[in-house]
Write a sequence for this structure.
């Protein structure tokens, strides 16, 4: 399932800017990925996605 930053923010009750910051700092920073698509491919290759 792919959600936009706005959809994620609405679901979590946080702002879009907070979602973007968290994605960049936490997910992309820890994985070394250059973007969401690369992170999703990495997760898929690791068997983390259905």
């Amino acid at each position: 399932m792919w959600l936009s930053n706005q959809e994620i923010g609405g679901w979590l009750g946080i702002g879009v800017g907070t979602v973007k910051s968290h994605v960049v700092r936490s997910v992309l920073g820890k994985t070394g990925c250059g973007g969401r698509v690369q992170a999703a491919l990495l997760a898929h290759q690791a068997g983390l996605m259905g």
Q: What stands out?
A: The chain has three helices and no strands. Helices lie at 5-12, 16-31, 36-45.
